Amino acid sequence: KEIAFIFDLDGVIVDTAKYHFLAWRNLAIQLGFEFTEEHNELLKGVSRVKSLEILLNIGKVEISEEEKQKYLVQKNTEYLGFVNKMTSDEILPGVNDLLNYLDANKITYALGSASKNAPLILEKVGLYSRFSAIVDGNDVSKAKPDPEVFLIGAKKLEMKTENCVVVEDAIAGVEAAKAANMTCVGIGEKEVLGHADFVFGDMTGFTPEFLNQLIN
Ligand code: B16
Ligand code: MG
């Protein structure tokens, strides 16, 4: 059958979570509290604004709307400093092989990310022009777990939702994919991404055998 893929970005194509972490942690230090890698897990797949809310909650810090805007810009500026240094070396293992397979088999794919920086990141790692469509944080009004981002992706690919395969590393993303009536492959731990149809530890799980199973 005809299928199409919709990929999340952070945690699936590249590991930008480590850069988000460094930038959020510096903001926390500035505000006088500790922000750990464990805390950072709570921000995966979550929008920038929501991430700040979670971070401020962790530190039990209350600030004005104006200050929030200032910190959002500050964090993103620092984050972009890391992004601007990214190269194709940062594409996660298994991704290039998978995209080559999809291209060879004329299976289209889109990006479905919460990140407003997604186009820049894809550009930096040299994958921008390979995607048939890009849906990012600038295109959606409702964040994951709302299915909006993936529904727009399916529309852009002109594909029925039930024929779309979403690849996601975040719980909210898996929920969004299932709410969109799509097949979901989780990348991470089975215990965490239990609602996905399939779960692999990393992107090398997309073996030719598994891909055949998805297509047929
Ligand atoms: P930005 P994804 C998400 O990307 C990240 O997982 C999440 O940690 C981040 O806060 C969000 O993008 C927004 O990113 O600040 O660049 O707009 O996993 O949906 O590709
Ligand atoms: Mg992600």
UniProtKB/TrEMBL annotation:
Alphabetized UniProt keyword annotations: Magnesium, Metal-binding
Site feature Important for catalytic activity and assists the phosphoryl transfer reaction to Asp8 by balancing charge and orienting the reacting groups, where: S113, K144
Cofactor(s) required for function per UniProt: Mg(2+)
Active-site residue list: D8 (proton donor/acceptor), D10 (proton donor/acceptor)
InterPro entries: B-phosphoglucomutase_hydrolase, Beta-PGM, HAD-like_sf, HAD-like_SPP, HAD-SF_hydro_IA, HAD_sf, PGP-like_dom2
Biological processes per GO annotation: carbohydrate metabolic process
Note on cofactor: Binds 2 magnesium ions per subunit.
One annotated GO molecular function: beta-phosphoglucomutase activity
Pfam families, A to Z: Hydrolase
Binding residue positions for Mg(2+): D8, D10, E168, D169
Superkingdom, natural source: Bacteria
Binding site for substrate: 8-10, 24, 43-48, 51, 75, 113-117, 144
Similarity section: Belongs to the HAD-like hydrolase superfamily. CbbY/CbbZ/Gph/YieH family.
Protein name (Swiss-Prot/TrEMBL): Beta-phosphoglucomutase
Species this chain originates from: Lutibacter oricola
